[in-house]
TrEMBL record:
InterPro entries: TraB/PrgY/GumN_fam, YbaP-like
Protein name: TraB/GumN family protein
Superkingdom, natural source: Bacteria
Annotated source species: Shewanella insulae
Keywords: Signal
Signal peptide span: 1-26
Amino acid sequence: MATSRPRLLNIGILLLTGIMSLGAMAAGDDKPPFYKITYQGKQTYLLGSVHIGQADFYPMAEQIESAFAKAGALAVEADTNKADIMGLIRKYGLNQVAADAKTKARLEEYCRTRSEICTPMQPYAPWMQAMQFSVMRFASLGYQAKWGVDQMLLSKNGSRPVIELESTEYQFKLMASFSPQIQWEMVLEAIDAPDEEMVQLIKAWRSGDEAGLDALMQGQMLHDGDKELIDKMLWQRNEQMTAKIGSLMMQQDGPSPLFVVVGAGHVVGDKGIPAKFAELEGTKVQNCWQTTCN
């Protein structure tokens, strides 16, 4: 599943909760990235998710469902249910920038027979257009936001506390911070990524192919622009979320066990959250498919 460079479309599906909250359920024999972290006398279950899905994603594997049922709190990247999405779009998503000639020509070609899709997107910033194209393309393949893992867990969390590791505004601001060149590249990736690659991404997540998921994130030859994008969207956020989870586990009266769900791209590889915790003295990190964690 190696690729010469990371697909920006795939990065969005694996990383961004607030923007790519589609939806899906995982079958009982699926093995998405799932870890148990023991630190400072507390336990955290860490699930790597995709933010789109299908009804047959659920119920998830028994040990995931069991860990979630006994958790004292749910931690997510961003709780979109509490966000003023329209306000955030007005603040971060309406910055129109001109496309270069090549990008403009390709977009015009794509939209020639899709005016009902493309015309409503014209007022929005390129990154917003890219995310919407991505949503629509995955929907055409049968994957919808309403079945996203994060959204499904939030919907059945009950009265337990919900903790944001970031926020929806943080994610909007992050996307808006990229240069026009990178944003328009996101648009091209969103409309040109092959269907089979998009389906392969979901299959890798369901089968627990962590090496394949990591390859989608990092690739083998990163362009300078992509390196900036991956550093800001993945590596820096891994550091920040590891620190936030660690601080929650250090609280004497903090919830335990804690159930954390983040995009799968944050969980895999040598710079993922489990790897970051493994660097901390006195921490035990278990891959729950190699050793049963319950």
